[in-house]
């Protein structure tokens, strides 16, 4: 009896590994690649940056060097009032950095002795030439007149250079005034005291100019009023009252 033949199951044959060509063909197709950005070299900007760095370093060195340069200059020793006659004792020297400010060298001290302050100068202020008016110089349109004042013709507190006063015409015991005007007439609305003297201190500039007894006070007055003030002063018919420090005189040294 014939034997039936059995069909054996087919064994799976492993697939051969894919080669490079097969892998390449399996990849999806892509377009052409764009070139990457190229880094631009900017030598001009680099050089400019170096120049700025060097310039900054040099500038800093100059500042440090100039800070070390110190010179002797003039400084107000104490407060100096407007119109005050300046003496050597009113100024001192200080050593400061030379930074180009409008300062006055210490060796120029004698150029300022005998001048008048044109403004109020606080103590320890670095002075400059615009703060002073030459002693022999009188601003245009003005004159300096001397007025003799007795204790009853002035404030109890002594007048000092820099004060602003009002001048009145007075007459003793009802006498006629030298000008014929009534007593109490205002001779000067506001005038700056620029100096004065007393019998005990003949050349006062700053401080008390009428400490005791009679003394004379130098006033800066409008030129048009000088004659009438001189006439009244010669007759002893001028009385002075002190005004507020902020009062602006009719004529002044400041800005001259």
From TrEMBL:
Transmembrane annotation, as ranges: 44-64
Domain SAF: 71-133
Keywords on record: Membrane, Transmembrane, Transmembrane helix
Entries under InterPro entries matching the protein: SAF
Residue numbers spanned by region Disordered: 1-38
Comp. bias regions, Low complexity: 10-32
Pfam families tied to this protein: SAF
Protein name in the entry: SAF domain-containing protein
């Amino acid at each position: 009896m014939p034997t039936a033949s059995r069909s054996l199951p087919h064994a799976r044959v492993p697939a051969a590994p894919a080669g490079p060509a097969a892998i390449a063909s399996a990849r999806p197709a892509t377009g052409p690649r764009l070139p990457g950005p190229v880094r631009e070299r900017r030598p001009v900007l680099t050089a400019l940056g170096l120049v700025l760095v060097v310039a900054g370093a040099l500038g800093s060195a100059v500042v440090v060097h100039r800070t070390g340069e110190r010179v002797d200059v003039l400084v107000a020793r104490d407060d100096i009032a407007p119109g005050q006659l300046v003496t050597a004792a009113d100024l001192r020297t200080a050593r400061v950095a030379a930074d180009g400010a409008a300062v006055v060298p210490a060796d120029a001290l004698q150029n300022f002795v005998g001048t008048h302050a044109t403004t109020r100068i606080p103590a320890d202020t670095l002075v400059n030439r615009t703060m002073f008016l030459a002693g022999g110089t009188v601003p245009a349109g003005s004159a300096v007149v001397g007025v003799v004042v007795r204790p009853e013709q002035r404030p109890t507190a002594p007048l000092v250079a820099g004060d602003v006063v009002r001048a009145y015409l007075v007459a003793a015991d009802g006498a006629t005034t030298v000008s014929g005007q009534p007593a109490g007439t205002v001779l000067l609305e506001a005038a700056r005291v620029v100096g004065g003297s007393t019998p005990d201190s003949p050349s006062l500039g700053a401080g008390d100019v009428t400490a005791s007894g009679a003394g004379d006070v130098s006033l800066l007055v409008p030129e048009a009023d000088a004659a009438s003030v001189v006439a009244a002063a010669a007759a002893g018919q001028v009385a002075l009252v002190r005004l507020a420090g902020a009062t602006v005189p009719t004529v002044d040294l400041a800005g001259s």
